[in-house]
Amino acid sequence: MWYFTWVLGLLLACSFGIINALWLENTENMDRDEADK
């Protein structure tokens, strides 16, 4: 049963990385928009 915990942890880590990358892209776009004004 330990492998269920391992798979859930792996999925959680991957989703955290994807969310972090999307957040970083979004904040870079917001900074770029503010600099253009």
UniProtKB/TrEMBL annotation:
Organism in which the protein naturally occurs: Shewanella fodinae
Name of this chain's protein: Cyd operon protein YbgT
Pfam families reported in the protein's UniProt record: YbgT_YccB (PF08173)
Lineage, uppermost ranks: Bacteria, Pseudomonadati, Pseudomonadota, Gammaproteobacteria, Alteromonadales
Cited InterPro entries: Cyd_oper_YbgT, YbgT_YccB
Top-level taxon: Bacteria
